[in-house]
């Protein structure tokens, strides 16, 4: 039973963290599309990389 509770908790945490990350990624995409430029693109690329790193961490929690 405790293992099931742990898995449910981890699934909820992953879900709750991925939702805002998706919003951030979409906002970054829209900024790049509408107001791109070399400096903005560089910063948005950093945002995308960090979002991917967080997603990888979240995925590793499932294992």
Provide the residue-averaged pLDDT: 91
Backbone CA Rg: 15 Å
Assess the beta-strand content as a share of residues: under 5%
**Secondary-structure element order, as H and E?**
HH
User: Which class of secondary structure composition applies to the elements?
Assistant: mainly alpha
Number of helices: 2
For the record, give the distance between the C-alpha atoms at the N and C termini, rounded to a whole number.
Answer: 18 Å
Tell me the quaternary state.
Answer: single chain
Tally the beta strands. 0
Shape: elongated
Total tally of structural domains? 1
Low-confidence stretches: none
Most strands sheet = none
Q: Percent of residues in helical segments?
A: over 70%
Protein architecture, described:
With 63 residues, the chain is mostly helical. It has one domain (11-61). The protein contains 2 helices and no strands. Helix 1 packs antiparallel against helix 2 (38-61). It is elongated. It starts with a helix and ends with a helix. 0% of the residues are buried. The model has no long low-confidence stretch (mean pLDDT 91).
Tell me briefly what this model is:
The protein has 63 residues and is mainly alpha-helical.
